[in-house]
Amino acid sequence: MPKITQDTRANILLTTLQLFLEKGYKNVSYQDLVKHTGLSKGAIYHYFESKDALLIAVFEFLLEATKEPENEKPHEIVKDQESFMKLFIAGKTKQIDSFKKLMGNKPLKLNRLLFFFEAISENQQLKQILVELSKHELTILEGYFAGLNMHHAIPKGKDIHLLAESLYWMLQGGEMSVFFLQEDDWEDAIIKMYQKTITDFFKII
Amino acid sequence: MPKITQDTRANILLTTLQLFLEKGYKNVSYQDLVKHTGLSKGAIYHYFESKDALLIAVFEFLLEATKEPENEKPHEIVKDQESFMKLFIAGKTKQIDSFKKLMGNKPLKLNRLLFFFEAISENQQLKQILVELSKHELTILEGYFAGLNMHHAIPKGKDIHLLAESLYWMLQGGEMSVFFLQEDDWEDAIIKMYQKTITDFFKII
Amino acid sequence: MPKITQDTRANILLTTLQLFLEKGYKNVSYQDLVKHTGLSKGAIYHYFESKDALLIAVFEFLLEATKEPENEKPHEIVKDQESFMKLFIAGKTKQIDSFKKLMGNKPLKLNRLLFFFEAISENQQLKQILVELSKHELTILEGYFAGLNMHHAIPKGKDIHLLAESLYWMLQGGEMSVFFLQEDDWEDAIIKMYQKTITDFFKII
Amino acid sequence: MPKITQDTRANILLTTLQLFLEKGYKNVSYQDLVKHTGLSKGAIYHYFESKDALLIAVFEFLLEATKEPENEKPHEIVKDQESFMKLFIAGKTKQIDSFKKLMGNKPLKLNRLLFFFEAISENQQLKQILVELSKHELTILEGYFAGLNMHHAIPKGKDIHLLAESLYWMLQGGEMSVFFLQEDDWEDAIIKMYQKTITDFFKII
DNA sequence: AATGAATGAGCGTTCATTCAT
DNA sequence: AATGAATGAACGCTCATTCAT
């Protein structure tokens, strides 16, 4: 009996995302999907023609839903370290919130990096998506530093692009440590890491 | 027919490492191992009681063989940016060389991160090993910055630990980008990234 | 959106026939049928209650459309080897033409025997149909030989029924070889085989 | 626990042959094979790497075991219709007996043609094997007719090759009818058909 | 020390079929 | 008349593992 649910597709995507994040692509079987979606194998195949197609769809769904919002005129807002921090953390918090909202009340044992790297290694097409995402995030940071520069909040003569890139990589490295070590409470841990990293960054430059 | 190889164990470890790095833990089957070692399933089980045990052994084998050598008195050697760079690159080059030597003439299509993260997610015990490793690398960097400080090669008043940690994370982030994008020629790419990152770092501080 | 095709049923039959001939009953799935008819699964089930029913319908459709036409007074026409050959080949050509017309311009990679035998082994009811068909063809041949006999075109004392049956079996065996070896251009090949077989037959009797 | 049976391979081949003959390649599943061999899926895959490989192996096994024996000097033996018939039937009986022996006491519901045609349509490589087989059988028949000719037991001036080919095709056609109509007792039916066909053949030439 | 026969659970995928709309 | 969501069993095949030899 076909259910009236129009959200079967969303149900599949969401459940699959959750499972992929928790256990990794390879470790999630259709049996798992059946169990957690409440659908039959056939129904899932009705919406996604293969596990591979499901991977891509889930990945795009995740990025779509959690893409960092770009501020329109960052240089009007970012004047000093304090406003930099505030805006950055606000952006990330928003991202995390939309992520948590996306997940609903479903419990989430995160092992995000595994999923990311698996996804990439299984599917070349996803690599490009991630490269774009990383450029996007770098651009945002550059906007922030441009603001700081306009307000003379950073030492003269520093290369804005270099600063942005350096901080971006530090943040990436920091994220790695967090995800390495922390499976639960990662939301708090990662926000604290962002704060510490930015604070440290302003100390060393 | 017993093989002449006395080092059956080493053969298994090496072959497995290569396969894990290339395809990831989950994607390597005993069938693959049999094919590439020239041994039988039984023989592999004779040396390693499970695929899990093999994973740990291989991981330790890898870290053992490529651990960054700690200089005895870094502050005597590291006097300025130039000597910093030289020593750091020398250490990493040594690491990579011992890695390549380890692999012998076997071709290596790297997908290293996948293996690392898979290993970690499959096996809690490996996480601790990696944490130790990361502390070790951080300590080395701190030694370098202490040397720089002794020779007044960095601005006064900068926190040495902070500098080391910041650079460490930047390097980690940099490694990620390289491994994301580059599957072949990663040796060159990663050395260049190290050089660029260190150069940039000295520009921004 | 309802298709303009009024002859949905004919569309299904034709497409299915083509697919069955090309790939065999077992290798044709509803997915294939959907793809090639442009209809939905439900629509096909609306016309044929099961794949089995579809098989029978298609089989009957095929036989109906390609049944060899019986000449009214063969003994008036068939006077000698030449007229025998002419009439026989004309009949077969007609059959093949109506078959090709039936298939329209759809390309047809023939593997006809597989389909026939599959059909029979899947469905007892079809066996009887084929037996009837074979009797029909035998009767036609007997009519031809009766004509020859009336015109003293065959050696005296030969049993007409025996001659007809013998030739019929030879032709059957010949068809088998053709279908074994030839997937494309079977129309030409089979006509040539008919000609050779009849010529040979007149040589040996 | 590995059994001592050295005949696991033979067991698989025999059981599979029986099932293929009875139900056809497509209709035999590994589940069936497991059930009838008493082995596990894995064990069967240990011996044959795929269902396709199994098909070829079974096919070769069948032909090997039932190939018609070639008489050394047929023209010394075949002198007239009677000796022709005797030798031919003896050869076929031998073939059938070795086939029945091969099958052991296992009950056999024959649907042989389906299997043959399926095998061929699934696997190009098998087609060639069958062509060779058919040439072999034709050669044997030609030897017989040469014998007849030497003893002036056939009308003068008849082309020996033509006679052999014609009879061969008649026999092929005859086999088809038998297999079409008869599933049980096919051994008797086919021998009777051979006898009738040969008798008829000598009547019409 | 090393083999390879054998297991059985599980994999991703396809199947014919049902039925509310 | 026609759709397409949904089912659940079955498919061929691979897996890590065991163990008698």
Report on the structure:
Four copies of one chain form a homotetramer. Chain A has 205 residues and is mainly α. Chain A has two domains: 8-61, Homeodomain-like (Arc Repressor Mutant, subunit A), CATH 1.10.10.60; 67-204, no CATH class. Chain A contains ten helices and no strands. The first copy, chain A, has helices spanning 8-23, 30-37, 41-47, 51-66, 74-77, 81-103, 112-122, 124-150, 160-181, 186-204. In chain A, helix 1 packs across helix 4. Chain A starts with 7 loop residues before the first helix and ends with a helix. Chain D binds a DNA duplex (21 and 21 nucleotides) through helix 3. Chains A, B, C, D: One of its GO terms (molecular function) is DNA binding.
What's the gist of this structure?
Chains A, B, C, D: Pfam families: TetR_N. Chain A is mostly helical. Chain A is built from ten helices and no strands.
How many helices of chain A? 10
3D shape of chain A: elongated
Overall average residue pLDDT of chain A: 88
Specify which chain pair forms the largest interface: A-B, 37 and 37 residues
Number of strands of chain A: 0
Class by alpha and beta content of chain A: mainly alpha
- Total domain count of chain A: 2
Query: Rg of chain A to the nearest angstrom?
Result: 19 Å
What kind of assembly state do the chains in view correspond to?
A: homotetramer
Largest sheet composition of chain A: none
What is the strand content of chain A? Answer: under 5%
Low-confidence stretches of chain A: none
